Each structure stands twice: as structure tokens, then as C-alpha cells.
Amino acid sequence: MLEHKYDFGLVGLGVMGHNFILNVADKGFSVCGLDLDQTKVDSLIASGGDAAKVQATTKVEAFTKALSSPRKIMLLVPAGKLVDAAIESLLPHLEKGDIIIDGGNSFFTDTDRREAYLKEKGINFFGSGVSGGAEGARRGPSIMPGGNKEAYQHIKPIFEAAAAKFNGEPCVAYLGPKSAGNYVKMVHNGIEYGLMQLTAEVYHLLKHSAGLSNEELAATFDSWNKGRLQSFLVDITAEIFNQKDDKGEGHLVDKILDKAKQKGTGKWTSQNAMDLGIPIPSIDIAVSMREISAFKDLRVEAEALYGKPTPKSVDKADFIYKAEQALYFAFIITYAQGLNQLAEASEEYGYELDMAEVAKIWRAGCIIRAALLDDISKTFATAPKLKNIVMAPDFVSKLKETLSATRNVVTYGAENGIPLPGLSNSLTYFDAITSGRLPLNLIQAQRDHFGSHTYERTDMEGIFHTEW
Ligand code: 6PG
Questions:
Q1: Which residue among 53, 72, 178, 185 is the active-site one?
Q2: d(C-alpha 4, C-alpha 326), whole Å
Q3: Is 236 in the pocket of ligand 1 (CB under 6 A)?
Q4: Same domain, yes or no: 281 and 142
């Protein structure tokens, strides 16, 4: 029997759960953790110190009895069956009005199913994205909750205290009903995939064409991080280039196998964008590149078979200058695509997302935090119904300014056999959506030719078919 009543409960004492509890406790709330693994329970009790502030147990009943009413229980367990299992184990011990928050990367339709199921039982369910990794959980993550608006009032003080702060504003907000929070987190991860792919391409270019050493790469990314590209991913990239290998000579980055894994959130973003009919090619290709990276043996054999052109020599300083512009251009396009998907999903699924708020809560704590997000949130604040930031005056000037360098960089990659699919997809997306007339009239003609699928005309109303 635990002696105190705790403000907040958390199930799953892995690194994220452990750290999030300590973060919440630092903010003055008492927290109780639950995990079936006694070593994790012991480790939390040891880190927590004062048992009146931080407690943990392996027993579900003791855990639920120790929580003040309405119970606010967050799950930080791997997405999938374990979330359902955790919910089922808690249910017999809960009362109407209690709150369960899934803080993992659950697929949004699973969240909708769980929300409806728990609603019947009088339990409020929140799907809440949490971004920022282990460090974010401890020091302040970006939190993306969705669910019942009234019930959110119970968790709001805890989340606002625990979240990262940007200029004093907490990086958390009630986002919308049902799976709004999980959906926003899914797209956050899609954008994350896109930005990571883009930084990897620029690394490839700078290393193999401009011949930058790891020290020079670190200095370049570090200086970019002090400018308009300021972001978590650019910052850690500089740090990565500085890391020496503790198991041998040289830098660690050069020893890491070039096969990127994935847990699926980027793929889900792409799949759902297809369902919505929203093009996000910069994110799609980032998923495909992780898949291509897995074909290591084939890639090595194919390189031997086809060879590679020797990259044309370049002026280092000029190349770095252009690469910065191309990366900035493609970062904007990647955010634009992800946010476009969110705006459409909001209508389709009735999330009623406040896009300025979404951009605001991504300004600190999360993996895609970047100076650009402050500009994006200001843009949406003045134009809440904007579907694509590419159309906003501030972004028109940013894109125009960096377009020519982006064309140069992408052309260089194509001519020298350096794959830059994220950069070139971003450029192609831009060129396509800024083309008043595309050659898709021909596709309509072909469809009508082979399948009588009909077409519309530019000069008269109606649906037409031709015997070609
Ligand atoms: C975050 C991250 C996190 C994600 C990892 C790994 O916002 O903190 O998005 O939720 O799980 O980045 O993702 P992949 O294994 O799919 O690369």
C-alpha cells in the first residue's frame, strides 16, 4: 500500500518514462510510476529521492489507488499491442472521469478506436505525441495532446509545467478532438525524416565534392546553426562531426554503417498523405532513401558495375554558400508539405487544428524545432486558413532568394552522380506548384484514348470524349 496520493501516474519506466517522471516531479507535482520490471521501479525510486514526490510500483492496483482523482495516467510504452494491454490492465481499477494519456507514437486510427472504446466506459483518452527524445523528456519536450477538451483542463497544468518553453511559452497546447495529437506527431515525424534526409544529402555534397573534412563539416554546420538554419537537427549534426571514435582511429561518423532504420511514423505520414491526395514528395523520398539504404550489398555491387563520375572540382567557399541556401530552401518546402498535409487532415478528420499553435509548440523541445518555426507560426497567425506557406509573402521572398543556388546544387548533383533526391524533390515540387500549366493535359488525352476516361477542356464547360 502506497501512503501518499500522487498527482500524476505514468506507466512504462523505460528511459522516456523515467525521465518524464523526474521532469514532472521537478515542477512540483507528485508522481507515481508503474512497471512490471522491478529493476526499473527500483531505479526510479533511487533517482526520485523523496517518496512523497516520486514513487513506483509493479502492482497495478497499488498504483491506481495511489493516484488522486480524477486519475491522470500517462502511458509511455511502445506503440501497438502493449498500449491495448496496458489499458486493459488498468481498466478494472479506474473510475468514470479518469484520464489515460497515450504518450507514444500510436497510429492515429488506433487512437480513435481506443478513444471511442474508453468513452463508452466513461474514461477520457488522450493520444498525445511527445517529442524530444530522452533528453527532452527530462528537460522539457514538445507535447501534442488531442482528446476531450474539458478533460484536458485536468492535465493542462502538469503538461504546461513539464513542456519545453519558447520565450517563456510552453510547447504544449490542446490540439483537437480524438487523434488530433497523434496525427500532428505523426506529421512531425514525417517532417523529421525529410529534414534528416536533406542534411544527409548536403553532408554528401560537401564531403565528396567540396572535400570538407569532418572538422570543416562541424564548423560549417555550427555556423549555419547560428543563422537562419538554426535548428536542433543542424546543431546535433555539427556535434556528430566532432565526435571521435572511441573504438579506433578517426571520427565515429565515418565508421557508422550507411543503413538507416525506421519505426514507421515517416511511412505512415506518406501513406496517409496519399490517402488524402496531398503531395509530400520531400517526405516520401526520405522514407524511400531509408529503404534504398537497406540494399547495401546491391549498392556496393552496382557501384562496381557502373562506376561513379569523378566529381568536378568546386570552389569550397562558394559551394558552402550555395549549399546553405539549398538546405534552407528545401527545409521550407519540407515544412510546407507537412503543414499542408496537416491543414487538409484537419478538415478531413475534423481536428480543427490551429496551425499557428501547432507551429508554436514545435518551436522548442521537439526534434524538428527550428528558427523557421517562429516565422511559420507568425505566418499562420496572420493567415489561419492558409493551406501552403509557399503562398505567404514572407516565404515567397525566402524561396525566391534561395532558388537559384538550389538549382545550381541540384544540377551539380545530377551531373556528378551524387544522389540528392530530397533536394531535387523539393525543387521539383516547387517548380510544379508554381507552374500555371503542366503537361498533364496529355495524360488526360492518353486516358481518354485508351480507356474513354473523358477530359475537360480549357475553352468550354463540360465533359468530353473523343474517338482518337
Ligand atoms: C521524437 C522522435 C521519436 C522517434 C524517433 C525514431 O519526436 O522524439 O520523432 O518519436 O521515435 O525519432 O524514429 P525512427 O526510428 O522512425 O527514425
A1: 185
A2: 56
A3: no
A4: no
Q: Residue 275 C-alpha to ligand 1 middle, in angstroms?
A: 23
Q: Let me know if 185 is a catalytic residue.
A: yes
What pLDDT was estimated at residue 1? Answer: 63
Domain holding 18: CATH number?
3.40.50.720
Contact indicator for 228, 371 with CB cutoff of 8 Å: yes
Query: How many domains in the chain?
Result: 3
pLDDT digits (tens, 9 = 90+) for 109-168: 999 999 999 999 999 999 999 999 999 999 999 999 999 999 999 999 999 999 999 999
Please check whether residues 115 and 234 belong to one and the same domain.
no
Ligand 1 atom 8: the closest Cα is on which residue? 131
DSSP 420: -
% of the chain exceeding 90 in pLDDT: 99
Q: 189 CA to middle of ligand 1, Å?
A: 6
- Residues 267, 286, single domain; the answer is yes
Instruction: Give CA–CA dist 366/93, Å, rounded.
Output: 34
Please identify which of the residues 115, 192, 324, 357 carries the catalytic annotation. Answer: 192
Q: Looking at residue 2, what is its pLDDT?
A: 78
pTM to 2 decimal places: 0.98
| Residue 260 reports pLDDT greater than 90 | yes
CA trace torsion 374, 378, 379, 380 (10° rounding): 100
35 and 167 share one domain: yes
| Containing structural domain, residue 427 | 185-433
